[in-house]
Amino acid sequence: MDSEADGRLIRSGTPVFRRTALALAAAGFSTFAVLYAVQPLLPIYAEDFSVSPAESSLALSLPCGLLALALLVVSPLSEIWGRKPVMLASLLASALLTIVASVIPGWHGFLALRALTGLTASGLPAVAMAYLAEEMDAQAIGLSMGLLVGGNALGGMSGRLISGVMADHVGWRIGLATIGALALAAAFAFWRWLPPSRSFVARRMAWREVPGSFGHHFRDAGLPWLFVEAFLLMGGFVCIYNYIGFRLLDPPFSLSQTVIGLIFSVYLAGMVSSPVAGELASRYGRRRVLWLATALGLAGIIMTLTDHILLIVLGIVVTTVGFFGAHSVASSWVGRRARRDRAQASSIYLCLYYLGSSVLGTAGGWFFAHSGWTGVVIFVGGLYGLALVVALRLSRLEPLGA
Q1: Rounded CA gap, 292 and 315, in Å?
Q2: DSSP 259-273
Q3: Distance, CA of 320 to CA of 301 (rounded, Å)
Q4: Among the four 131, 195, 287, 398, which has the fewest Cβ within 10 Å?
Q5: Where do transmembrane segments lie in this chain (predicted)?
Q6: What is d(CA 387, CA 375) in angstroms, rounded to the nearest whole number?
Q7: Could you say which DSSP state residue 221 is in?
Q8: Do 13-197 and 212-397 have matching folds?
C-alpha cells in the first residue's frame, strides 16, 4: 500500500509533528553550522595562510563539492540501513571533525579535514528530505520542509555569526571549536526527539541497480528542471555570501569582522521565508510561488550594487528571502513529484545544489578578482536570470501528483 494513503502519516499540529520538526530543525542546524561557519572567515584565511580569495573559498567549496558527490552513495545506503541511523551517524561525525579542524595547524591539513566534513555531512540533507516525503501527510509536507530549511538557515546563520564575532575577540579557532560543540549538542537532541520511521521499509539493493534508481528521474518532465534550478540558485547565493565580506572589509566600508559577522544574521529572514513559502505553495501552487521567489532573489542581488551600506544589507536580506523561499518550494516539489526512489531524487537535487555551491561559489572569485563586486553581481545576476527562465518553464508543467 502506498504510504501516502496510510493513516500512519504525520499530520500538522500534532505532538509527533512538533517533535519531528524540532528534531530535523536541530539536524539542519548542526549540518549547516559546521559547513558554513568558515564563510565569514575567508578573508582571515586569505591573510593567515597567504592564499588568494578564490583559494580561501576552498574551505567552503571543497566540503560542499564532496558532500554533493557523496549524496549519490549515501541515499541508497539509507534505503538499506534506515533513515534515522544514517542521519545520526552523519551529525556525530561532522561535529567531531569540526572540533579537530579547529586545532590543526596547516592550510592543507585544514582543507583535508574540511573535505572529510563534507563527506560525513552528506548523510543528512537528502535523507531528511526522503524521511519527510515518506512520513508526512500531503498537507503537512510543505510546512515541514519549510521548517527543515528554516533549521538549515538557523544553522547557517549561527555558524557564520558565532565564528565571525569570536574571530575578532578570541580567535577563529576557538570559534570553530564552539561550533563543533554546539553541533554535538544538536545531534543529541536529534537522537532524542526524532520518532522512528513508520512508513519506511528497508530493502536490499544490489549496487548494479543503483544507476537505474537514479536514471529514471531524468525521464520525468519536471524533475531535471528542478535539479538545474538547485544548481543555479545555490551557486549564485553562495557567491554573494562568499565575497561580500571581502567587499565590506575594504574601503569605503572598512567594517570589522564582528560587524560583518552580524550582517550574516539576515539569515533570520530565510528562517521566516522558508515555512511561509511552503504554506503559500500549498495554498497557491508551487508553479506560481517558485518563479516569484526567484525574481525576488534577483532583485536583491541587483540592489547590492549600491555603495550605501543600508541598501546593501537590505539587498542581502531580499536575496536571502528569495533564495530560501525558492529552495523550500523546489525541494518539496522534488519529494512530491518523485513516485519512487525518493531518497535518490532528493540526493540528485542536493548533489546539484552543493555542486553549484562548490563550482559556482569558487568561480565567483575570478569575477571578484577581475571586476570587483560589479563582476560578482553580473555573474550571479546571470545565474538567477537563467533560474527565473527555468522557474517560468516549470510554471507551465503538467501536474503529475505534484
Answers
A1: 16
A2: HHHHHGGGHHHHHHH
A3: 9
A4: 398
A5: 21-38, 58-74, 86-105, 111-133, 140-162, 174-194, 223-244, 256-277, 289-306, 312-335, 347-369, 375-394
A6: 19
A7: S
A8: yes
pLDDT at 212: 56
Residue with cell 517560468: 392
pTM of the model: 0.75
pLDDT band at 377 (very low <50, low <70, confident <90, very high): very high
- DSSP symbol at 209: G
One-letter amino acid at 166 equals M
Q: 166 by DSSP, 3-state: which?
A: helix
Contact (CB, 8 A) for 334 and 129: yes
Give the confidence band of 231 by pLDDT, cuts at 50, 70, 90.
Answer: very high
Q: How far from the centroid of its chain's Cα atoms is residue 94's Cα? A: 15
pLDDT digits (tens, 9 = 90+) for 24-81: 888 988 998 999 899 889 989 988 999 888 899 999 999 988 988 887 777 667 766 7
Whole-angstrom Cα distance, residue 326 to residue 273?
9
Identify the three-state secondary structure at position 136.
strand
126-146 average pLDDT score: 76
**End-to-end CA, the chain:** 19
Whether residue 139 contacts residue 282, with contact meaning beta carbons closer than 8 Å, is answered with yes
**Residue 69 to residue 226: CA distance in whole angstroms:** 18
| Residues 275-285, mean pLDDT to the nearest whole number | 77
Cell of 221: 518532465
The domain spans of the chain are 13-197, 212-397
Per-residue pLDDT of 294-308, as tens digits, reads 999 999 999 999 999
Cell of 214: 537514479
Least confident among 316-325, 342-351, 373-382: 342-351
Assigned C-alpha cell, 379: 555573474
What's the CA gap between 359 and 364, in Å, rounded? Answer: 9
Q: Are 199 and 135 in contact (CB under 8 A)?
A: yes
**pLDDT at residue 375 in the model:** 96
The neighbour count for residue 185, using CB atoms within 10 Å, is: 13
Fold of the 212-397 domain: Growth Hormone; Chain: A; (1.20.1250)
* CB-based contacts of 275, cutoff 8 Å, min separation 6: 143, 146, 147, 149, 150, 328
Q: Which residue has the higher pLDDT, 15 or 385?
A: 385
Q: Which H/E stretch holds residue 59?
A: helix 58-81
Percentage of the residues of the chain whose pLDDT score is greater than 90: 39
